[in-house]
Amino acid sequence: MPTRVLRSVSELREWRTQHGARELALVPTMGYLHEGHLALMQEGRRRVPRNRGALAISIFVNPTQFNDPADLASYPRDEPGDLAKAESVGVDLAFIPKPEELYPPGASTYVEVGALDQHLCGATRPGHFRGVCTVVSKLWQLFTPTVGLFGQKDFQQLAIIKRMHRDLFWSGEVVGVPTMREQDGLALSSRNARLGASARAAAIAIPKFLQLVRQRHAAGERVSSRLIADAEQALAPGRIHYVSVVDAEQLQPTDHANGPTLVALAVFFDDVRLIDNTLL
Ligand code: PAF
User: Fold this and answer.
1) Rounded to an integer, what distance in angstroms lies between the CA atom of residue 120 and that of residue 168?
2) Chain-wide mean pLDDT for the chain?
3) How far apart (Å, rounded) are the C-alpha atoms in residues 33 and 30?
4) Which helix (H) or strand (E) is 224 found in, with range?
5) For residue 123, what are the contacts with CB-CB under 8 A and spacing of at least 6?
6) CA–CA separation, 4 and 158 (whole Å)
7) How far is the CA of 60 from the centre of ligand 1 (A)?
8) CA-161 nearest atom, ligand 1
9) Which domains does the chain show, CATH number per domain?
10) To test the ligand 1 pocket, which listed residue (40, 62, 190) has its Cβ within 8 A of the most ligand atoms?
């Protein structure tokens, strides 16, 4: 069955009313879909088979979560390719609004979680999570899904969305799905398409470094600075935005990896900002 495309909030509201009490899985995306997104959709379909409800995605490059206009302008887009991929995994509905649909003139309401965003991407991309939370709130309100699926590559985003979901008594459930990787270990990301050949080859320094961190931890190392020692050399020629060791619950920096710990990083290769993480 072809994926139905809706572009306006009013069409989506009408569809949602008709859909009624049946189940609904939602995968919010910014498009330029890759296998990682398709894994989210497949998990959505597994949780909501067609005889019980619908699988929906949104494709929207959300301007409010970009703190760098050049990053927003160069974000890759491919609507026909996205729709073909969505159809191949049985997506029933794709909501593809223009910015004015979700942010009509005069829109002035923003959603801030007020915690979990002090470090990692929150510290290095001011306003980013406010934009993410605002757009996810709008989408959740419009879709009222029974399940919303998000990737664990953006671990901090997932933690913040889970907190917002709990604090605002939202419908349904937020589900995290493990990171998909290329054969050489690089985490799948729409941004990988912007890497030149040599930067793409160099970027495998990221999964290699995270592997080294896991090896150090497995060998008994618990001191955070030693777990991530020599990051600059290991990630060269990448330019480090941050490499941090935080506790996996509150996302606060920790000197020792005694409990559940997240090592997360953001590194520029060829001016393309790549993120990844590993749980210890
Ligand atoms: O992870 C993303 O692609 C975006 O941050 C999201 C959740 C679709 C909100 O714009």
Assistant:
1) 24
2) 97
3) 8
4) helix 224-227
5) 117, 242
6) 27
7) 8
8) 7
9) 4-177 (3.40.50.620), 190-273 (3.30.1300.10)
10) 62
**How far, in Å, from the CA of 65 to the mean position of ligand 1?**
9
Q: Are 263 and 245 in contact (CB under 8 A)?
A: yes
Under 8 Å between Cβ of 180 and 36? yes
Query: 């399940």: which residue's tokens?
Result: 147
Tell how strand 261-269 and strand 272-279 pair up: antiparallel
Tokens of 75: 């974000």
CA of 135 to the centre of ligand 1 (A): 8
* Cβ partners under 8 Å of residue 231, min gap 6: 209, 240, 243, 265
Strand partners, 23: 53
For 267-276, write each residue's pLDDT tens digit.
999 999 999 9
For residue 246, give the nearest of 264, 269, 229 by alpha carbon.
264
Q: Tell which atom from ligand 1 comes closest to the C-alpha of 139.
A: 9
Q: Which pTM does this prediction carry?
A: 0.94
